Structure formats: C-alpha cells, structure tokens
Amino acid sequence: MSNEHDDVADSEATGAANRPEVPRVDVVFRVTGERVAVDHGYALFGAIARALGEDLHGAWWLAIAGLRGVQRSKGELGLSGPGCELRVRVPHEKVATVVGLAGKELEVRGRSVMVGVSRLWELSPARTLRARIVTTKVKGELSDAEVFRAAITERVKELGVKARVELGERRVVRISEQLVAGYQCTLRDLSEGDSLKVLYAGVGGRRRFGCGVFMAGPPRGEE
User: Fold this and answer.
1) What is the mean pLDDT of residues 78-90?
2) CATH 3.30.70.1890 region(s) of the chain?
3) pTM for this one?
4) Which architecture, in CATH terms, is 24-122?
5) What local confidence, expressed as pLDDT, does residue 8 receive?
C-alpha cells in the first residue's frame, strides 16, 4: 500500500496547481445506472476523459467529487432513484468543456452509467467542510492518524487557511494498480474566505480521482 502515485504526486497539492484564488463552480449531472463500487474515482476519471475525448491527466483545474448514490450493499452504490448524481468542480471558464458529458454513457469498472442533464451549483462558504477521503505524503507512518493529521494541517496552512482538522476513519482508494491510503477529513471553524479557498482548491492530491474534494454536510456518496 502506498500514499504516492507518480501521475498525481503531491506537487499538485501545493503551489500553483491549487490556485485557491480561482473561483470554481460545481457542474452537477443527473445519473442513472447499475450499481458501482464506492471506490470508483480512478475508473470514473478514465471514463470521463474517454467520453470527452480529452487528455485530462494534466488538468489542474479539474476535481471530480464522484458519483452520489444510495448504499445498496457493502462497497456498492445504487444509481437508481432521486438524488443520484455526478458532481464535477471546475473554474467557470471550463464549464463548457465538461457539460459535454450530458447524454454520454460512462463505463465505470465494467458498469454502465448514463449521464443526464446538468445544472450549475455555486459554491457557498460554510464553517465546517468534509471530504470522504484526503490523501497526501507524510513523514512517518501513514497508519498513524496523528502523523497524518499533522500532514493535512500543514497542507491547509500552505493554502493560507486556518482550520481545526479532524480525521475520521482510515480509507483506501485504488489508483491504477496501486492502493493509496488516506482518511476521511473534517475542517472546522473556517472563515468565509478560508472556506472558499478549500472549496476551490481542495486539500492534498488526487482530486481528479475524488480525493480532497470538500463539501458542506455529509461526504458525497454516503447519504
């Protein structure tokens, strides 16, 4: 198990790649389809890139919050019924790039997902934000929650954000042939400006694969 991946090394977690000053918007698509694995971020990214016909590996501007569905069995989400959606977070000038997903069929780990119409969701600040999983490099044992919390606290500070960092359960995401470990994460006591920085830039790496993408309220895909 690893906490690194060459394609999305944590150089994207700091510096120019984050660009917390660039406002983003969520493009939210209605979806229907078969059950998919809860751990679907890497496969979903590939499916989106194929559907759009674009090489998105260097797309610093793209964050994919993933598929929101209903827990049907351990490790699977159902995509039938109200509230099932795909949420993609991009700068305003990239909206035209991703709305082309409407009407496409995505193959996600061998399962079919039909993408419906889209709507725009403006991001609003909140004092508390949550992410299903955050990944980053750590100095020390990844299994040590306090070591990981210190690393995430440092990533938050690098964004110029003040927040109280809380970790939930330890989680694993499959990226290509590699298992990458991280933690569920909550940021509390955020100012309005700092909240928007986190929403815009995320925390840690692998945001194209659903990691480090923060929301107000329960993490996406778990309601």
Assistant:
1) 92
2) 24-122
3) 0.87
4) 2-Layer Sandwich (3.30)
5) 42
Encoded tokens for 85: 């959606």
Q: Residues 203, 186: contact at Cβ < 8 Å?
A: no
Q: Considering only CA atoms, which of 34, 117, 101, 22 is closest in space to residue 64?
A: 101
Residues in the chain: 223
Q: What is the tens place of the pLDDT at every residue in 27-83?
A: 999 999 989 999 999 999 999 999 999 889 889 999 999 999 988 777 888 998 888
DSSP string, the chain: -BS--GGG-GGGGSGGGT-TTS-EEEEEEEEEEEEEES--HHHHHHHHHHHHT---TT-TT-EEEEEE-EEEETTEEEE-STT-EEEEEEEGGGHHHHGGGTT-EEEETTEEEEEEEEEEEE----S-EEEEEE----SS-TT-HHHHHHHHHHHHHHTT---EEEEEEEEEEEETTEEEEEEEEEEES--HHHHHHHHHH-SSS-GGGT-S--BSSSPTT--
